[in-house]
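Write out the 3D structure for:
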Amino acid sequence: MLTIEKKPLVVGKYVSTQHVDTVIRNYKQERWIQNSERIGKEDSLSGWWSIEEVEDFLEKAKMYGGDGVKFYFGAYSKDFADVPEYAGRQTLVMVATKQKEGAAGTTVNKDIYITEGEKSNILAYNMTSLCPPRCGKSDGTDVESPEIGITLVDKGKGGLMVI
């Protein structure tokens, strides 16, 4: 009997609160400020999906042979009409992937496309609840104070800002 050894697909790890705080603070200082200035409003810092949405997406990904998920960074167009307050802000897109053998024994994570009728589409999920503008509850009616990644930003003549 031939046994094929499956390579583990684990690439991440659980991290500490300090690690999360550090990477968020780095992002705010090195990218978020400039992004916000460029688009003329506070850019999004996070996106939220319910566990049910994520589980549903993962089930569908598995149904089509997926074994991973890529999170692509993206940005809505400046005239995004579906949710006007998202216009110009960055977002996350979940894309189902399947690991494949590449050249010279490397592995690549290929995006999954599914065919429905005559049309082929990427298996992806977007429209997260962005913060800002929707911080707190998913409907945007509640603003909670940030607990992680609090950063004091010196805006020069613009004063100080806590984000």
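The chain has one domain: 17-162.
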